[in-house]
Amino acid sequence: MKLDRKDILKALETITIAGEGKNMVESGAIANVITFGDEVVVDLVLHTPAMHIKKRAEDDIKKAILELVSPEAKIKINSKVDVPDKPEIKGKSIPGIKNIIGVASGKGGVGKSTVTANLAVSLAKMGFSVGILDADIYGPSMPIMFDVENEKPISVTVDGKSKMKPVESYEVKMLSIGFFTAPSQAVIWRGPMASKALNQMIFDADWGELDFMLVDLPPGTGDIHLSIVQSLPITGVVIVSTPQAVALADAKKGVSMFMSEAINVPVLGIIENMAYFTPEELPENKYYIFGKEGARNLAEDLEVPFLGEVPIVQSIREAGDYGRPAAMQTGSIIETVFEGITRNVVQEVVRRNESLPATEAVKITTMAGCSAVKK
């Protein structure tokens, strides 16, 4: 018995690979087919490293040949995984904005908004142009943290279109649903309404030229997160967590969501907030109230960068309440802490932009110790 290569290819045209839609031959998954009498060698190239997809494809090939060509065929499959180096990043780019960084957490109460505010002012102090999109629709806190609760975005005309001009404070531009509601008013919206409001703040605003836009995401892994990753080409996300097990479990889910095949947004790293308590009168003492190095260990387990730890210091809370982010306190421990974390974030953005497509890579000109992007 001699097998015909054309018959083999015709049989393989009846198979589709999970998630691709086209048949194996049309999609290019079948790189080559060689026949020797009753033997057939199939070279299979897959574009996903998932083992269950590989096994299913191999089983389908054997089944199709045995059923449609010959039940006596001796089949050998050489499988190769060829994952594209530059996966597609979803979303519509905003002209003038180079890098969009999501700041997320698995659960509420871990200080995500505080970290976002301090990252923003640290970037601004380093010479970058920065904006904040407060995407925490149901709990907007940026207007309080930047002491602009009573401000309202004004309307400006850009290229014949009316757009919102972001409110600016401490050299950081920002938009928040908090500017459009009374401080005591609850935002009682379903998901589609919240998503529409976000889209307006993103695309109907005059953001101008920004090196970084920080997106303060709500806690969890819900509708707002999906709307953001669908609307914007997110450069990467930073996960904020406290050290205790309950927060780490949810932070792990947050990392999993962004790294999932469906969303595929790079995780730049994890920041551990409330890492330890240091009394002002005993600056050398550290009390690990919520556990020790939990987020650092999680970062190692998930093989993502650890960006740094923020201690519990009374002045951070006070600064947030008074509307002047603590990282602006010149010569303080907190300024040094956030400066170090911010440098790490920028370095991870540079590394990420060297290997993946997306917004224009940051050109580091104002910071020592950061490697510049390749020209």
Please, could you describe this protein's structure?
A hairpin with a 2-residue loop joins strand 8 and strand 9. This protein has an eight-stranded mixed sheet, with helices on both faces. It is 34% helix and 23% strand. The protein has helices at residues 5-12, 24-27, 51-68, 112-125, 142-145, 191-203, 223-231, 245-259, 294-302, 314-322, 333-355, and strands at 30-36, 39-46, 74-81, 97-104, 130-134, 154-158, 161-165, 167-169, 172-176, 210-216, 236-241, 267-277, 306-312. The N and C termini lie far apart (59 Å). It is built from eleven helices and 13 strands. The chain is an alpha/beta fold. The radius of gyration is 26 Å and the shape is elongated. The longest helix is centred in the C-terminal third of the chain and has 23 residues, at 333-355.
Descriptive tags:
375 residues; alpha/beta; 3-stranded mixed beta sheet; disordered C terminus
Number of strands: 13
- General form: elongated
| Percent helix range | 25-40%
Main sheet specs: 8 strands, mixed
What does the average pLDDT come to? 78
* C-alpha termini separation: 59 Å
Kindly estimate the percentage of residues that lie in beta strands according to DSSP. Answer: 15-25%
How would you classify the helix and strand content by structural class?
A: alpha/beta
Low-confidence stretches: 359-375
Placed side by side, the strands forming the largest sheet appear as 8-9-5-10-4-11-12-13
**Radius of gyration computed on alpha carbons:** 26 Å
SSE order in H/E notation?
A: HHEEHEEHEHEEEEHEHEHEHEHH
Instruction: Quickly count the helices.
Output: 11
